[in-house]
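thoughts on my protein:
***
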Amino acid sequence: MEPASIINTQTILPDQAALVSVQSTGSNTAEVIVKLTTTIKRTQWQLTILNSAGNGTNATLSEGSIEQLDLFNLTTFNLSNLSAGQSYRLRLGFLYNQKDTITVERIYTHATYNPWKRLAHLVFNDGLYTGSVIDRSDDLSGQLVRLTRYVDDDQWQSNVYSYRTNQWFTTDAPSLPPRRGMVEYNVFFQGKDLAYFYGLGYLVNDEIPGKYAYQRDMYAILNGFFTDVIPFYGGQPGELAYFITTEWAYFLTNNGSPAMRRIYADLDQEDRAPLPEAPGVLATFSIGEMGYVVNQVPGQQPHLFAYDSGADVWIRKADFPGKARSRGIGFSVQNKGYYGLGTDANQQGLRDLWQYDPATDQWQYHTDYPGQGNTYVVVFSPSNRQTRTYIGFGYENQTRTDSPAKRIIGCTDFWEFAP
């Protein structure tokens, strides 16, 4: 099977506005954040609220504070007179590129449960709006995490987020040539000594669309010492999905061979039992020493497989019961798995998030993501995997009321999920 056809998501965005987030703040209130470039005047955009059918509603919308950042401003709106379980339609109309009027919309269903905390935006408008996130090596509590993004063939950008101060600051990037899809992860040699790995990814030649040069080089820092991973990665070429246990990282290939490769904290590599069916686009998470893979294949419900790393056995689990999708994300918090977001068969962006309980082998709807992105969203559970996950950035498949009905927008918002 051919390697995955990966969307070239590098964009430079012109003047724009975006409805970034809607999140509950109380039994009948919610907060809305609108993002606007600094060149858009207040007379050039408007936010309105309707009921789900597009008619009038008793809900009220009031404009609040403005946070001024270097490249854009964030305007807060307060929603009130909401009813739990009721759906509302938010519409943002604005002047695009100083000539065209665009209206985007978002359906919000009010809920009193809110496990989300809005964190500081990272301010940028170039390169990819996705990347890799890792614990900073001197703090594995999740208080400091580093995001690395591909900007262009000559430049990385790395920033560290401080949970204590809710701020981003710049830091040194990994010491390897820039590439898209870089993999970063931490494992522990013999369960105690930190081993940090990075590398892989792919290169794109813009003059040859659809062709990708998949990289096999990996590097590691073991007990403070740098080393190449030799031999180079020996798994199948392609866009990789992976999950980690305490000492091992396990790699599969999206839309490729079902073969699986694992790399130990001391650099050893070996093949393991293949995924029981041909992979589509994979979403992964791990709970303890078990890895979980959600197989997203067009035209079928996503299948869930659990991998027992001790026995080298795959076990088919309950199929995902929600809407079929692609480019959904997976992660784990407090011994539960979570899966959602992505896009449906019509490229409509999705924000629903579902919880999987391995003790009962059951799925249930949990919450909606309040942020902007749908696809290529960055998700990271700190190495202790105890209390929270970070989610953000990525791309929004934006719903418009005019033609064309969809456009893809890069996102800069960042969130904490703590169920």
Summary: DSSP finds no helices and 35 strands in the chain. The CA atoms of residues 17 and 36 lie 4 Å apart. The chain has a mean pLDDT of 89. The two ends are 39 Å apart (CA to CA).
